[in-house]
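I keep forgetting this: the sequence line spells out the residues, with the fold written below as integer tokens. I include a record here:
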Amino acid sequence: MQRGFTLLEVLVALTITAMVLGGLFTLAAGSKQLAGRAQSSLSDTVQARANINFALLDNQFRDIESVIEDEFDVSPEDELEDPLRRTAPMYDLLETYRMVDPETGEQIEGVRWLRSDLPR
């Protein structure tokens, strides 16, 4: 009567265990790299959005209105409601707008910042 495992059975079990652990470590490392790339992409997107908003608030795109209005009919819609709570008066307002291409009838709606002369 034999008790225990043979050397071949132990080697096969260790090989299978090593392959499974290697696969798990590869998945974990790939997941960590993917999370790092996603965080980097999100950070770049947030920075780009912040730059665009800053440029719009500084009104660096004041000449773009004339270019857009040459090709599209731009009509202001409604000013968005003020927030319920503010710490200081605001000179910047949000306004919805609609652009219509007269040739195709295609419509684009959006929101833009407007700078007012008086605080609200």
